[in-house]
């Protein structure tokens, strides 16, 4: 099978390329090598064809789709962003880029599409209150200033977090989240119009060797690792008890390869959570990385970022039951490896 991986020189994209080559696929990579992501020249795995370019370039995209059976779309601007001035770049890179790619796929007859979505489309995770399942509104600044970090029930008591499923209401709360949900809607429209099949993989907290460092758009695992590499203690926001699902990049790559074989099952578009299914806290990951690297202990700061959610953890049962995927890297083994793994060069 010939596979086009957009963003294939990036952290997750390169893991997918390596896994696809190992399975014997013919792989073509399209990546713009944007400077706020790549601090140095990336190494493209031997055997992959590399094309430097932007998914917003329709003529180029049409050319690289020649002979392609399935597109694995990883190219995107990621992270919460620095401030709202990032909005045009998120919309252009993620929404417009995906629209151009799908339009060229429609024109050239490529009918199988897998794309990177994100847990951020949910907003807050799933919770249970006194009256059963509930979805809280965004946390109030006054509560955060007072150190009340957990979403509250109507009676003022903390809600109990639960695993979130793909059928949960969607509530994107920042520009990045809105752009990822827009990508899903575009994929749905494309599938309905062309008869193609599209799988949107809602990644939870991905970590692993080759993560980017020294960028405000990096994930928390990378920020902790970068601090430890500088000899500094990881700074943990809020009280460190925020619950997350950390999933290794190799398992995410395996999920993408499982999804490229999905035939739709009568549906044109379907979303799948990609998580380990095991809950850990932000504080735990900082502690694990400090211990395994021999670095200073984490510092819990009590600081917060407006727009961050408190708890979000995944049920990946749909991905397991429908695509036969299962994670293979445990949190403990993954953290031990990641604590000393090589990161990508710093962005200058």
State the gist of this model.
The chain is of the alpha/beta class and 348 residues long. It has helices at residues 11-22, 58-64, 87-108, 141-145, 175-194, 220-229, 249-259, 282-293, 317-323, 331-338; strands at residues 2-6, 26-31, 49-52, 70-73, 112-118, 126-129, 132-134, 160-164, 197-203, 205-207, 235-236, 243-244, 246-248, 269-274, 280-281, 299-300, 313-314. α1 packs across α7 (249-259) and α3 runs parallel beside α5 (175-194).
Please state roughly what percent of the residues sit in beta strands, choosing from under 5%, 5-15%, 15-25%, 25-35%, 35-45% or over 45%: 15-25%
Question: Which stretches of 5+ consecutive residues score pLDDT under 50?
Answer: none
Structural class: alpha/beta
Task: Please tally the helical runs, counting DSSP H or I stretches of 4 or more residues.
Answer: 10
Largest sheet: 7 strands, parallel
Mean pLDDT, all residues: 93
Please report the total strand number as a whole number.
17
Apparent shape: globular
The rounded Rg comes to 20 Å
Helix coverage percent of residues?
Answer: 25-40%
Quaternary assembly: single chain
Query: Secondary-structure element order, as H and E?
Result: EHEEHEHEEEHEHEEHEEEHEEHEEHH
- Main β-sheet, spatial strand arrangement: 3-2-1-4-5-9-14
End-to-end CA span: 37 Å
């Amino acid at each position: 099978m010939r596979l086009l991986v957009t963003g294939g020189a990036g952290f997750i994209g390169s893991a997918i390329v390596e896994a696809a080559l190992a399975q014997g696929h013919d792989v073509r990579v399209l990546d713009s090598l944007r400077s706020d992501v790549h601090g140095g020249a990336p190494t493209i795995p031997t055997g992959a064809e590399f094309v430097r370019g932007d998914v917003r370039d329709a003529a180029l995209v049409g050319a690289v789709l020649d002979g392609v059976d399935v597109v694995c779309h990883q190219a995107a601007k990621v992270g919460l962003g620095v401030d709202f001035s990032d909005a045009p770049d998120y919309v252009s890179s993620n929404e417009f880029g995906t629209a151009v790619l799908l339009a060229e796929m429609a024109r050239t007859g490529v009918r199988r599409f897998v794309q990177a979505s994100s847990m951020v489309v949910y907003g807050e995770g799933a919770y249970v209150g006194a009256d059963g399942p509930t979805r809280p509104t965004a946390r109030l600044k006054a509560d955060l200033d007072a150190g009340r970090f957990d979403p509250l029930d109507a009676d003022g008591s903390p809600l109990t977090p639960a695993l979130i499923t793909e059928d949960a209401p969607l509530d994107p709360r920042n520009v990045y989240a809105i752009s990822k949900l827009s990508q899903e809607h575009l994929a749905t429209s494309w599938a309905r119009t062309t008869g193609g099949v599209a799988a949107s993989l809602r990644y939870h907290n991905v970590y692993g060797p080759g993560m980017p460092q020294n960028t405000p758009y990096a994930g928390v695992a990378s920020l902790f690792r970068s601090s430890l590499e500088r000899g500094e203690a990881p700074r943990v926001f809020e009280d460190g008890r925020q619950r997350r699902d950390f999933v290794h990049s190799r398992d995410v790559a395996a999920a993408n390869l499982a999804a490229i074989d999905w035939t739709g099952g009568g549906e044109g578009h379907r979303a799948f959570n990609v998580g380990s299914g095991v809950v850990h806290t932000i504080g735990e990951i900082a502690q694990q990385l400090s211990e395994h690297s021999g670095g200073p202990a984490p510092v819990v700061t009590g600081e917060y970022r407006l727009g961050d959610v408190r708890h979000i953890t995944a049920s990946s049962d749909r991905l397991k039951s429908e695509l036969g995927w299962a994670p293979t890297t445990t949190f403990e083994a993954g953290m031990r490896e990641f604590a000393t793994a090589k990161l990508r060069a710093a962005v200058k």
